[in-house]
């Protein structure tokens, strides 16, 4: 949960980087704005409804052919008004349908159907405020409402329908986040229901500046997406670009944040996380207060945060709930072990293969004795152990929680001891690989930890081929790659490069809250933003 303020240019703690114009448009990898590709839907977008119930029923039944949960009910309302209700039984709340909508309909009179606005106003005053009706004139609007948990009401001799969303509110209970557990701080996480997640954000930021804009992605799934930001604090060009990229997604199915993340990322082929994800409402709220933008996707407990920087991967939500001195020490510890996670195996391979003169004599004799009966070169031995360690870690994740940790720990001990006794590998390489694995676990953001794990393998190959020159070349290549990355127009290594003194205060250090509060006041004053 970084404290980098992305606000208007001109203040000493922001970095203004233009992301508009033709230059960015040419670099983005999104198809042009327009209708969905062919074959994604058989419903003409502008097909009007008929004024005959029989015609509308035939059209709806043809669209929902072989849908056993489709319900079509004919209702005779007072004044001989014939009405047809269409909905999917699996999605509609029966109690709300019968008590909240059906009973008020039984008091409807003929004269209230003459004017559509009059009918809507009449219904709004008599049904539950949570199920507000809307008028639909096209078949596409009606179908979208039905598949999203709504009821469509058709009336004889009228070429419009009323759509009322009374979706069955099924969701799991709020729980502690699984991937971002903390000792101090809130113990509540997002769930798969977007409405609940928006409520959690509203509880953390009780301000009218918190803006929520909704849209739908996925031509078949119709997944609901919410773009959340703080007005006048989040840069307007970033907000515009996020919404533009979301609107240009052309996919049949969007079932989670991973689908969207790859489609809107500046660098989809980079292993480093250009967009961060979090399960914690307090972490998402903190990012919004920094001027960032959050994207919520219905059906997933993860919230995407953008733009982000490289240093965000080494910051934990718990940093802001503990003493700033201890939090700063932990950050430096993460930086150190992140370097070891990338470089430790490659340095071991390079030194033992090409630069034995750099090893003290006593240590060199111990290494030679340990490797005396090992049949593989050091590089091959290291790669075997790295692959084995990753396999054990993956097995521990996939197995049931009760046995997963036991299998990963016991498996590592048993396999390692047996391999050493059999002379397949040496004992020092087990120490190096174990240290590397522990180092990767210290990185709080899973995306950054995965990226560092990926780079270990090419670094070992470079070390086994060219020695320390290969290690140096690999590290320089990684640094060049990081320098070329951007997240929605912001340099990935900001505020270290380009340097920003105030921004560094919460990257290399966790500054005291007194200093960060003053910095926030300065950001708000320069942006003319009232205190939320």
Automatic annotation (TrEMBL):
It comes from the Bacteria. Keywords: Membrane, Transmembrane, Transmembrane helix. It holds the Pfam family GerA. InterPro entries: Spore_Ger (IPR004995), UPF0353/GerABKA_families (IPR050768). The keyword Membrane applies. GO terms for biological process: spore germination. Residues 30-50 are annotated as: Disordered. The chain crosses the membrane at residues 293-312, 332-351, 425-443, 455-480. Belongs to the GerABKA family. This is Spore germination protein. It comes from Cohnella cholangitidis.
């Amino acid at each position: 949960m970084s404290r980098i303020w992305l606000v208007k240019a001109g203040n000493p703690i922001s970095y203004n980087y233009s992301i508009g114009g033709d230059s960015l448009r040419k670099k983005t990898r999104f198809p042009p704005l327009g209708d969905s590709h062919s074959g994604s839907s058989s419903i003409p977008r502008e097909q009007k409804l008929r004024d005959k119930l029989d015609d509308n029923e035939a059209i709806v039944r043809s669209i929902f052919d072989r849908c056993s949960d489709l319900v079509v009910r004919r209702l005779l309302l007072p004044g001989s008004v014939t009405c047809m209700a269409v909905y999917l039984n699996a999605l509609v709340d029966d109690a709300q349908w019968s008590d909240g909508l059906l009973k008020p309909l039984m008091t409807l009179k003929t004269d209230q159907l003459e004017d559509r606005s009059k009918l809507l106003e009449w219904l709004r005053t008599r049904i539950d405020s949570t199920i507000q009706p809307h008028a639909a004139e096209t078949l596409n609007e009606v179908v979208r409402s039905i598949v999203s948990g709504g009821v469509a009401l058709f009336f004889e001799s009228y070429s419009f329908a009323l759509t009322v969303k009374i979706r069955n509110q099924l969701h799991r209970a709020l729980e502690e986040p699984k991937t971002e557990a903390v000792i101090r701080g809130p113990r509540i996480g997002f769930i798969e229901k977007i409405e609940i997640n928006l409520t959690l954000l509203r509880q953390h930021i009780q301000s009218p500046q918190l803006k929520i804009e909704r849209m739908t992605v996925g031509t078949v799934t119709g997944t609901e997406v919410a773009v959340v930001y703080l007005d006048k604090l989040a840069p307007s060009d970033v907000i515009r670009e996020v919404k533009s990229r979301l609107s240009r997604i052309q996919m049949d199915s969007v079932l989670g944040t991973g689908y969207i993340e790859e489609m809107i990322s500046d660098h989809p082929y980079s292993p480093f996380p250009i967009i961060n994800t979090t399960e914690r409402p307090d972490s998402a709220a903190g990012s919004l207060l920094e001027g960032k933008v959050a994207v919520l996707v219905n059906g997933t407990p993860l919230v995407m945060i953008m733009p982000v920087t490289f240093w965000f991967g080494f910051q934990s939500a718990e940093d802001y709930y503990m003493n700033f001195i201890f939090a700063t020490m932990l950050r430096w510890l993460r930086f150190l072990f992140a370097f070891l996670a990338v470089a430790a195996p490659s340095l071991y391979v390079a030194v033992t293969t090409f630069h034995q003169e750099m090893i003290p004599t006593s240590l060199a004799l111990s290494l030679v004795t340990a490797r005396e009966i090992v049949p593989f070169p050091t590089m091959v031995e290291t790669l075997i152990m790295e692959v084995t360690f990753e396999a054990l870690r993956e097995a521990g994740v996939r197995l049931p929680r009760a046995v997963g940790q036991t299998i990963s720990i016991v498996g590592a001990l048993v396999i390692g001891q047996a391999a050493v006794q059999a002379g397949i590998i040496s004992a020092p390489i087990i120490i190096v690989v174990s240290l590397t694995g522990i180092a990767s676990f210290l990185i709080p953001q899973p995306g950054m930890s995965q990226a560092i794990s990926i780079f270990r393998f090419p670094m070992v190959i470079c070390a086994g081929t060219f020695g320390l020159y290969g290690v140096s070349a690999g590290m320089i290549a990684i640094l060049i790659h990081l320098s070329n990355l951007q997240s929605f127009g912001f340099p990935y290594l900001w505020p270290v490069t380009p340097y920003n003194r105030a921004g560094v205060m919460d990257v290399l250090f966790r500054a005291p809250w007194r200093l960060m509060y003053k910095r926030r006041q300065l950001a708000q004053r320069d942006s003319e933003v009232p205190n939320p």
